[in-house]
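Example S7 (structure tokens).
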């Protein structure tokens, strides 16, 4: 049996020594950490309060946005949310890189938008902060995962517990791990 040896090892010291954030970002992170309890423990229907608080920390939040108090938003200054969008219970917005969510979009309970990773091909494993974009009228269903650098097209649906690592076409439905196309999304007229 032939084994290949890796000539280099993961360089943890270099990873920890690397400057990942600016001084201004480090200060903002401290203040956001101190403000988070005011977000988390606000009464459930106080969406206006959470919108106001996120805007104070640099978020671009449209009107009539419902963000639940149990949603976990890593860095508000890297978040943009369009009008009439909802971010559900326990959703994780891990926005090391920018995350833009369009109008009338839904991020369901326990969904995970992850705009950060590491370059595993380099020994120091530097931080990568790749943006995520969720289009207007898109729906990220319960417990779905959307990875770094992904664009979820307008009107697309990412099925429950799906894991998305590639862009999702507009008005399509994807599911599974890794997510695969299931069918096109077609809206019926209301009676």
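Recovered sequence:
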């Amino acid at each position: 049996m032939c084994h290949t040896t890796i000539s280099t090892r993961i360089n943890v010291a270099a990873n920890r020594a690397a400057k990942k954030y600016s001084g201004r970002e480090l200060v903002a992170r401290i203040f956001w950490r101190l403000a988070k309890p005011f977000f988390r423990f606000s009464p459930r229907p106080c969406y206006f309060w959470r919108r106001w608080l996120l805007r104070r920390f640099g978020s671009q939040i449209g009107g009539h946005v419902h963000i639940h108090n149990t949603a976990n938003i890593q860095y508000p200054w890297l978040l943009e949310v369009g009008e009439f969008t909802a971010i559900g219970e326990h959703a994780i917005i891990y926005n090391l890189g920018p995350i833009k969510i369009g109008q009338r979009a839904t991020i369901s309970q326990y969904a995970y938008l992850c705009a950060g990773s590491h370059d595993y091909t380099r020994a120091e494993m530097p931080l990568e902060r790749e943006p995520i974009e969720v289009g207007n009228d898109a729906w990220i269903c319960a417990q779905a995962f959307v990875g770094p650098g992904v664009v979820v097209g307008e009107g697309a649906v990412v099925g429950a517990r799906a894991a998305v690592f590639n862009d999702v076409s507009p008005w399509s439905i994807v599911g599974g791990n890794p997510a695969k196309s299931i069918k096109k999304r077609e809206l019926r007229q209301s009676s």
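Notes on this example. The radius of gyration is 18 Å.
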